UniProtKB/TrEMBL annotation:
GO terms for molecular function: isomerase activity. The keyword Signal does not apply. This is Enoyl-CoA hydratase/isomerase. Belongs to the enoyl-CoA hydratase/isomerase family. Keywords: Isomerase. One of its GO terms (biological process) is isoprenoid catabolic process. It comes from the Bacteria.
Amino acid sequence: MVQVERGRVYRLYLNDPERRNPLSPAMVEGLLKALDEAEEDPEAKAVVLTGKGQAFSAGADLAFLERVTEMGAEENYRHSLSLMRLFHRLYTFPKPTVAAVNGPAVAGGAGLATACDLVVMEEGAKLGYTEVKIGFVAALVSVILVRAVGEKVAKDLLLTGRLLEAKEAKALGLVNRLSPPGKALEVAVALAEEVAQNAPSSLRLTKELLLALPGMGLEDGFRLAALANAWVRETGDLKEGIRAFFEKRKPRF
């Protein structure tokens, strides 16, 4: 269900194109396994996530939807926990992540894209948190969406369940780059390569700071930032970066 291309930039493909890449249990487990592998691989500096075929991800597995109201509380909770682990894992992943939205990203599929650090979206693609239209709640996605766009915009998107065109998604801050049709993966890989040239320890610490700061008060935030500022000065990456700067060459991270 998940195809992996290894390298400096890991490419993870949601690979169920005939069903528009739904978040089936197999897809969720495949993504978690692939992310574990990418974290452990010292050559992997960034991850790009995209969909095979004409869609990024249409969200829920239709086979699951047909029986969801007949499942017991324990089974429903287990399913919710597996999705929670995936969104949390992707959102807190220590290496930079880029979503290449090559087609519709709907419901849980929109959540996957939102959980990535950066998003590239093709002109002509659509994105939406459509759960309310069939009686679901975009509960897990709301945790990260409100961080991304703020309460008022999140209310608009979650309460209407409307689909966004690429340009509006970018204007709202959900998307970082637009691409021509058929070029989302190419643009996303180039963006990931650009990010991957930077110091790994700096990237990791920056992500940790951005995760922690929204929940902290001003004084605590500044104290944490000061600690990070001091800690990074002891890393080999900074020593190499300073050396490269004075030697007028690219650093070798």
